[in-house]
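Colleagues,

For the teaching module next term, I've prepared a clean inverse folding example: a structure given as tokens, and then the sequence designed for it. I'd like students to try predicting residues themselves before seeing the answer, so please don't circulate the second half yet.
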């Protein structure tokens, strides 16, 4: 009888202990984009959980446009679905000012905030407070096939013009053998085709708005930009380009189907990885193109981890964010996936590392990031900041609507002139409703 009572007591104790452990366990739900660096982070989650056995991590991984919709809805309604969200340099200043995000100024000293690359850190700071930690930072640059460039009898300059890009793309195109001279984003979205086209427009002397917030789609800058883009893609681009975003164009380049690709610097680690890319030893990089007007077609962006003010797990969320954006995490990625696969563009110390600085893309990535100037993104003065976006709340909707018009033009559904006319009218309507225009 005594043994039976002892067994029962032990069972009750074990059940109570398990229950207490379950109650003590914190579950973090993280929303992120389906880019390669984020997939790597998910693969390393077990390392964080092993060091923090009281925290379990659950991932919601979404395509870029859908991620933005879900996260924006969740944080604006304070629904609290996510404890950590992956957002960009556009959202952080706006949401930080609205007190939708928690400040990260209480990170431990060994996090070394001062090591963050200044332009990246500045874009995530509001009134002296850091509201998001950069997971990776990027600009954009030219990736090109060195073998196809040699075959064409050309040498890519470190700082090419759009005229040179057009000439090179023409000469490298061999559609009969599945080689396209150039691959560019065409998928509609303010962070998809419009990220590329906005910077291209900057380099052609255009802007989204003038100093009085009048849309500029009826001006020469946008007309030249869009017609140049459409002509180039028609002559030398792949079929179905209006469905291609970052991931699709990356896959095309990695598989050897593109001569030139102008896109995010972060793609370099995947392109130069022989395990993932057929052109790892046949790729060169250059600065994004210009037209001699003083602005290049390169953007500035950081995919960052932020904590919604609505979370009930702030302490655990800060632990994860600090871990995933730390120097030690970068070292972990390099040990697991290779030196060149470190999340780029966030920490100065990475570019001082002797092994990483030998990567063929490291110097050009850092130079591209440092050349981007969100405070002066265009040739002529404008009332906004942001290189490939306009840092106002209305831009998310405007950028997507305009992106749909330009994607339709790329697909041949409407003409360039129709797309520009529609873009002008749609943007004017929104800006009037929002009170920018009378």
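(Answer key — instructors only)
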């Amino acid at each position: 009888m005594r043994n039976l009572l002892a067994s029962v007591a032990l069972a009750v104790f074990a059940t109570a202990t398990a229950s207490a452990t379950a109650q003590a366990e914190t579950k973090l739900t993280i929303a992120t984009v389906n880019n390669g660096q984020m997939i790597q982070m998910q693969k390393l989650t077990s390392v964080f959980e092993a060091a923090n056995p009281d925290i379990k991590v659950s991932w919601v991984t979404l395509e870029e446009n859908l991620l933005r919709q879900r996260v924006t809805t969740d944080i604006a309604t304070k629904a609290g679905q996510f404890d950590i969200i992956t957002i960009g340099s556009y959202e952080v200043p706006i949401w930080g000012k609205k007190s939708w995000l928690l400040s990260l100024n209480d990170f431990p000293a060994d996090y070394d905030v001062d090591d963050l690359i200044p332009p990246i850190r500045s874009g995530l700071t509001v009134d002296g407070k850091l509201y998001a930690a950069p997971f990776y930072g990027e600009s954009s640059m030219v990736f090109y096939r060195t073998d196809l460039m040699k075959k064409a009898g050309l040498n890519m300059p470190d700082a090419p013009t759009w005229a040179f890009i057009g000439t090179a793309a023409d000469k490298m195109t061999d559609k009969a053998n599945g080689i396209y001279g150039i691959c560019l984003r065409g998928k509609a979205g303010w962070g998809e085709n419009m990220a590329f086209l906005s910077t291209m427009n900057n380099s052609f002397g255009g802007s989204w708005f003038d100093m009085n917030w009048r849309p500029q789609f009826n001006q020469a800058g946008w007309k030249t930009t869009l017609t140049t883009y459409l002509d180039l893609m028609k002559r030398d681009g792949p079929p179905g380009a209006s469905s291609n975003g970052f991931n699709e164009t990356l896959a095309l380049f990695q598989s050897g189907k593109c001569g030139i690709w102008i896109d995010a610097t972060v793609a370099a680690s995947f392109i130069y990885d022989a395990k993932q890319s057929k052109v790892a030893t046949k790729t060169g990089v250059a600065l994004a193109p210009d037209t001699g007007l003083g602005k290049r077609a390169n953007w500035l962006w950081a995919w960052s981890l932020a904590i919604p003010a609505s979370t009930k797990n702030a302490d655990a969320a800060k632990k994860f964010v600090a871990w995933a954006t730390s120097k030690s995490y970068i070292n972990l990625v390099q040990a697991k996936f290779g030196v060149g696969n470190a999340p780029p563009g966030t920490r100065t110390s990475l570019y001082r590392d002797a092994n990483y600085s030998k990567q063929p893309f490291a110097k050009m990535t850092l130079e591209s990031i440092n050349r981007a100037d969100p405070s002066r993104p265009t040739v002529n003065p404008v009332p906004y900041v942001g290189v490939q976006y306009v840092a106002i709340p209305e831009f998310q909707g405007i950028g997507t609507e305009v992106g749909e018009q330009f994607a339709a033009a790329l697909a041949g559904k409407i003409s360039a002139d129709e797309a520009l006319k529609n873009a002008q009218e749609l943007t004017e309507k929104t800006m009037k409703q929002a009170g920018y225009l009378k």
